[in-house]
Each structure stands twice: as structure tokens, then as C-alpha cells.
């Protein structure tokens, strides 16, 4: 009987010690979790400030569609001559027009010309008296598709203070169009020189309406242009596979143009999940649907 009592006492002590060990481990784990949480809160706690961060949603822009009556592509630049160089321009006109090229035009003079009323603007190019220097008419009342023009330009020896080329496509049948229809396109072209060796390219274009209103035409960055200059590996792989769909899901075609970066790279579903442009990482302030 005494031995049985001793065995019962030992069994009770063994069970009690196991429960005590489990309880001790549980208390230690809880204390460690509280300690780690308190440490992380103190480590990443933001400083007290009166600035309140407000999330700004991108606003949708509603843009009107405009049919451009002309287009211009910059071709090759021939710099073989010692005293001159020639630039090939490919002009397309769907309406009778004047195609005029002005060399070495100052920015101030171009700004004044863009803001002129339509009647005074057209008189500068139709009058026999040359109101602007270095103006030459290359086509008149001609409908053409990708017609090449060889333009001669002197090689500048001084830092350029003017635009190398300013081309004008001007409709000659403006009496048939309304005041809110485009009547002229002005294109500013850069050519390389000793101070800026960037290749010949279009700097900007302006669309002038018959009512005198002027719009600055800004190109949208297509998928091919975006990915050819991107440093992101996924973008390179995207271009290599020849996929021109949304840059995120690769499934749906892009429908949203992000502003101000003008990257057309997202579908409607993926656009709802981003705040920054996935290509240039700039903040999306507004957008419009293609």
C-alpha cells in the first residue's frame, strides 16, 4: 500500500511538471511576441507631424477627336557637303495645301506668328512680298502621299539661337471648312550641328484652326517606343515576345493613356490597381481613354 501511494505521488509530480513546462513555454512565447511587436512599432513609428497625406485620385480627361489633314516624317540627313547639308522630308496631304519651309526662324517670331488671326496668318504666305525671311514654297495646291522634299540647310558655325527648320502645311480650301476645323499644321524640326549632335527629329507640332485657336500636338508613347528604351527586364521580355497588349496582364489591349507621361500601356482592369506609371514610375495625375 505504501509503495502504491509513492507511485501515485511520483506520477502526479511527473504530470504536474509537464503541465508546468508547457505553461512556462507558452508564457515565454507570448512575452517574446509582445516584445517583438513593441520593438517593431517603435522602430517604424512615424514622427509626429501635422501633415496629413491625402490620396489623390487620377482625374479623367475628355478629349475631342481631331482629324489631321497633313502629316510629316523626317527622313535622312545628308551631310556629305562641306558647306551645306540636305534633309529629306516626307509630306502627306489629304487636301490642297501650301507646303512652306522656313529656315532659321527665331522662337519669338514663331510665337507671334502662331497667335496671329487666321486672315493675317495666311497673308504672310500668300502675299508676293516676303514678310518672313528664308521662306520657300515647295508645294502649292497639291494632294500627295508621302512626297519627298529635299531641303537644304547651311551648317551653323555658332550656337543656334533659332529653329533650324519650321514647316507649314496650310490648307488652301479654307472657305469649305468651319471655324473649328484644323486649317494648318506647323512643325519644328531639329538638325544636328557642332553644338547639339542629336539626330534630325521633330521637336513639336502645332495645330492651327480657322478660328485662330492653336493646339500643341503631343505624341503618345506607343508600346514599341516605350519598351525599346525601358530598363525593366519584364518590358524587354514583353517586347521580345511581340505582345502589344497591356504591359501588366499581357492579355487585354491598352485602353488608358496616362498623364502627364502619355504612356498608353494599361487596360481598364489594370489601370484601377496602379497609382504610378509601370514604365516610367511617374505619378498618374490624370488619364484619358483611347
TrEMBL record:
<keyword id="KW-0472">Membrane</keyword>
<keyword id="KW-0863">Zinc-finger</keyword>
<dbReference type="Pfam" id="PF13920">
    <property type="entry name" value="zf-C3HC4_3"/>
</dbReference>
<keyword id="KW-0479">Metal-binding</keyword>
<keyword id="KW-1133">Transmembrane helix</keyword>
<keyword id="KW-0812">Transmembrane</keyword>
<dbReference type="GO" id="GO:0008270">
    <property type="term" value="F:zinc ion binding"/>
</dbReference>
<dbReference type="GO" id="GO:0030308">
    <property type="term" value="P:negative regulation of cell growth"/>
</dbReference>
<keyword id="KW-0862">Zinc</keyword>
<dbReference type="InterPro" id="IPR013083">
    <property type="entry name" value="Znf_RING/FYVE/PHD"/>
</dbReference>
<dbReference type="InterPro" id="IPR042496">
    <property type="entry name" value="CGRF1"/>
</dbReference>
<dbReference type="InterPro" id="IPR001841">
    <property type="entry name" value="Znf_RING"/>
</dbReference>
<protein>
    <recommendedName>
        <fullName>RING-type domain-containing protein</fullName>
    </recommendedName>
</protein>
<feature type="domain" description="RING-type">
    <location>
        <begin position="246"/>
        <end position="281"/>
    </location>
</feature>
<feature type="transmembrane region" description="Helical">
    <location>
        <begin position="12"/>
        <end position="36"/>
    </location>
</feature>
Amino acid at each position: 500500500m505504501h509503495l502504491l501511494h509513492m507511485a501515485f505521488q511520483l506520477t502526479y509530480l511527473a504530470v504536474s511538471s509537464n503541465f508546468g513546462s508547457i505553461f512556462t513555454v507558452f508564457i515565454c512565447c507570448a512575452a517574446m511576441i509582445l516584445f517583438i511587436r513593441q520593438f517593431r512599432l517603435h522602430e517604424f513609428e512615424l514622427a509626429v507631424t501635422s501633415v496629413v497625406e491625402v490620396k489623390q485620385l487620377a482625374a479623367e480627361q475628355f478629349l475631342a477627336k481631331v482629324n489631321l489633314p497633313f502629316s510629316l516624317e523626317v527622313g535622312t540627313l545628308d551631310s556629305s557637303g562641306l558647306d551645306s547639308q540636305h534633309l529629306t522630308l516626307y509630306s502627306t496631304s489629304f487636301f490642297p495645301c501650301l507646303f512652306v519651309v522656313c529656315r532659321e526662324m527665331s522662337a519669338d517670331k514663331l510665337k507671334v506668328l502662331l497667335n496671329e488671326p487666321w486672315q493675317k496668318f495666311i497673308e504672310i504666305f500668300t502675299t508676293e512680298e516676303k514678310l518672313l525671311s528664308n521662306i520657300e514654297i515647295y508645294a502649292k495646291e497639291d494632294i500627295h502621299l508621302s512626297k519627298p522634299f529635299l531641303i537644304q540647310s547651311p551648317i551653323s558655325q555658332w550656337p543656334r539661337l533659332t529653329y533650324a527648320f519650321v514647316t507649314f502645311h496650310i490648307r488652301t480650301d479654307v472657305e469649305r471648312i468651319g471655324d473649328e476645323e484644323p486649317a494648318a499644321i506647323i512643325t519644328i524640326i531639329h538638325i544636328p550641328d557642332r553644338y547639339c549632335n542629336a539626330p534630325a527629329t521633330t521637336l513639336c507640332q502645332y495645330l492651327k484652326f480657322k478660328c485662330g485657336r492653336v493646339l500643341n500636338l503631343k505624341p503618345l508613347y506607343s508600346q514599341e517606343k516605350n519598351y525599346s528604351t525601358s530598363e525593366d527586364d519584364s518590358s524587354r521580355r514583353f517586347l521580345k515576345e511581340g505582345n502589344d497588349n497591356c504591359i501588366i496582364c499581357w492579355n487585354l489591349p491598352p485602353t488608358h493613356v496616362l498623364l502627364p507621361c502619355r504612356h498608353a500601356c494599361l487596360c481598364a482592369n489594370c489601370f484601377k490597381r496602379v497609382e504610378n506609371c509601370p514604365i516610367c514610375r511617374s505619378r498618374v495625375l490624370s488619364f484619358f481613354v483611347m
